[in-house]
Amino acid sequence: MVQFKTSNPANNWWGAIAAAFEDGYIATNQAGQIVAFNPSALEILQISESQMEDPNWWKSPAAGALGRLLQERKEFSGQKIRQDVPHKKDCWLQVTGKALHTLTETGYILTFKDVTNYLEVNRSLNTIISSLDDIILEMTIDGVILHVWMNRSTRLTLPWMEMQGNSAYQYMPDRLIREIQQLMREVMLSGKEVVRVVQDPLARDQQVWYRIRLLRPGTANNTFIVSIHDVTAENKANEELKETRTQLEDSQQIFKSIFDYSPTGIALLSLTGQWLDVNASLLETLGYTREEMLNLTVSSIIHPDDINKAIAQMEQVRNRKINSYRAERRYRHRDGHYIYMFLACSAMQNPDESIRYLILQMIDVTELKHLDSEARKKNIILHATSIDLQQKIKQLFELNQIIAHNLRGPATALISSVELLPELENMQEQEALLYHMKNSANAILNTLNDLKDVLARQINTEQLPFTHCDLEDITRQLWSSLNQQVVEKNAQLKMHFRVPVIAYSRPYLENILFHLINNALTYTRPEAPPEIVVETWQDDDQIVLMVRDNGIGIDLQKHGEQLFRYKKKFHRGYESNGVGLFMIRNQIRTFGGRINVKSEVGKGSSFFVYFNNRVHISKDDE
Amino acid sequence: MNKIKNVCVVDDDELFQFVMRQHFERLELVEKVHKFTDGEQALNYIKQNLNEPDKLPDLVLLDVNMPYMDGWQFLREYVKLQLPENKHIKVYVLTSSTHESDLQKAKEFPSLAGYLVKPIGKNIIKEILTELLPA
User: Fold this and answer.
1) What's the sign of the alpha-carbon dihedral B75, B79, B81, B86?
2) Cβ <8 Å between A417 and B73
3) A residues 538-577 near B, CB within 8 Å?
C-alpha cells in the first residue's frame, strides 16, 4: 500500500509521486521543514512519523549523515553514506540530493536506498577476486578497459589500475592484441565464453602460461569480461605429466616388446601362485597353451622336491622380508618330464606398497645342468684317477725299491756264490753254500710271490666288488679268530663306530683290520694288559678307521719313513715277517686311500686308515 | 806280511755273508771279519769299542736294506760318534740297489769311502783291502 504524508496540502502531488517510489524520499521546503516523505523513508531509517516530522530530531545526532545532508541541501548524485539506523549493525545508503525549483520557492529532495546488501556483495566479490590469482577486466569491444579487479600478479606485470579508462592495446604486445581480438570475434560469433591458454603473453621470453577467458556479461552492451589466470604451475605440471605419461607409455611399450619377444620366459604371478600372464617363450618351453597355463597354479607344476623351498621363498616376499629372489627349480613340462629352470622373481608393488603381483623370469637350464653334472662327474673321475695314479706311482716306486733290494740283493749273492763254488774244496763248505743259496732262491721266490699279489691287486680291482661292510660284525669275528692271544694277554676290545657301515672290498677290509688288531695284540707291554680301541668317523668326505693300542709303541723318529716298507722289522724278539703293514698299505692305496700312524714309545700306537670315498663313487660311475 | 786287523760286514743276507767270509779267508789279508745282520748290531759293536782302537774296524762294508736299522740309519748314528784319534775307518756302502734315490742318499754322507754295487767279485775286495794295507 502506497502511503505518503505531507504537512502541506498544496504540495500533495509531491506526495503522490513520492508514494510510488521504492526508494526513500524526503522533501523540505525553502525553510527546511519536512514537507513530504514516503513510507519507504520511514522503513529504511527505522523512525516513526513523529520523529520524521520533528525538526529537532533532524538536528539531533540521531539523524546522522542523512540529517547533515538535509541541512546542507547540496545537489549530488549516488553518494554512498553510512547511516546510523536502530537495530542495524551496518547500514549504507546511496543518496541523491536535488534542489527543486517551483515558482514560489526552492525545495530540496533527498532520495535514498539501502545499499548495505549490495555493498556486502561487492565486498564479497572483491574478497573472492582477491583470493584468486586472477586479473579480471571489463573491456569494450574497442579495447578500452572500463574496470580492473585484481589481487596480484607475480608475472603478468602491467600498470593495470592505471589502464582503467584507457585502451588496453597501448600496453600489450601485438601478438596478445591479435589474440584478444580473435577471442572477441569468437565470442561475438558463438555467444559463448572462449578460453585460450597463451604462453608468455607479454612476450618477455618467460616460461609462463596464462589462461585467458572471454565472455560477454549480456548481449545488451558491447563489453567483455576478460579473466586472466596464471596457469604456469598447472601447465608445467601438465607438461611433466605428459612427459611422465610418454615415458610410461614407452616403458609399457618396451615391457610389452620384451614380454612378447624375449627368448626368456616371463610370467606374472599372483601372490596365491596363479599365473596372471605368461609370454610365448615360457609357453613354448613348458609346452602348454596360454589357456592351459592360466588354469594352472605354479605349485602344481613345480617338482615335489622343490616345492617347499618355492613356497618358503614366496612366503618371504609376501611377508615383505625380501623383495626378490633367485632360484633353480624343476617345472613339469606338459609332456610330464621336468625342466630345470633358473628363475629370478621380483615383486611388483602398488603405490601403497602392497604387492600387486610377482614378475618371474625363467630360463631353461636343463642342458646346462646336464653339462654341469657331466663336468662334475668327469671332474670327480679325474680327481679320483689322479689320486689313483699318484698312489700307483708311489706303489711303483716302492716296487722298484723292492726289486733293487729284495730281489737284486739275493740274486747278486747267488751270482757271487756261483763264482765262489769252484773254489770251495771242502765238502762241508760246499754244502753250507748250497744251503744258503737255496734259502736265497726261496727268498727270491717269496718276494716274487708277494710282488705278484700286489700287481694282481692293481690289475684286478674289478674283481673286488664293494659291499656294505658292517664294521662291528667284522671286528668281532676277527677278535674271536685271535682268541688265543686275547685270552693269553687278557686283552680288552673297545669299539665306537660313528660310521657303522662302509662300502669297501670286504676281504681287504678284513685283512686291514686283521693286521692292525694282530699287531696291537703282538707288540704289547707285559706290564699293561692290552686295550685295543677300534673307531670310525667321518672327516669331510673321508671315512676314518682308527685302531689304537697301549702297546710298546714305535720310535717314529727312527722308523717312521720305513714303517710300511717291505720286510722292515723294528722290534727284536717279536714274530714278524715285515710284510703285514706293507700289504695293507698297498691294499688301502689300491682304492685311493691312505694310512697314517701316531705313536709314542712305551705308550702305544694309533693307526688311521682314510678311505677315499670319491674314488669309490667314481669307480661306480665309470 | 801285514794284515788288516778288523773288517765288518753288515748285511742281513746270509748267503752274501757266507760268500764274503770265504773270499776274505782265501785272500788272507784280514785278521778278523765281524759279521752283523743289521745296522744296530754293527753300531753297538763300534760304540762298545770306542776305547779300544784295536778292536775297531778298519773297513766297514755296509748294506742298505736291513731290518731294525738300515744302512742310512746306521750312517746317521755313525757320523755322530767320536772315534779315537788316528783311527780311520773306511765305510763303503755295498748294495744291490742302483736306484737313483739311494745314490742321492749316499751323497749326503761325505765321509763314505765309496758306493759299491753288488755283485762284487774277489778282485774288487782285494783292491779295497790292498789300499788299506799298511805300507
Assistant:
1) positive
2) no
3) 558, 562, 567-570, 572
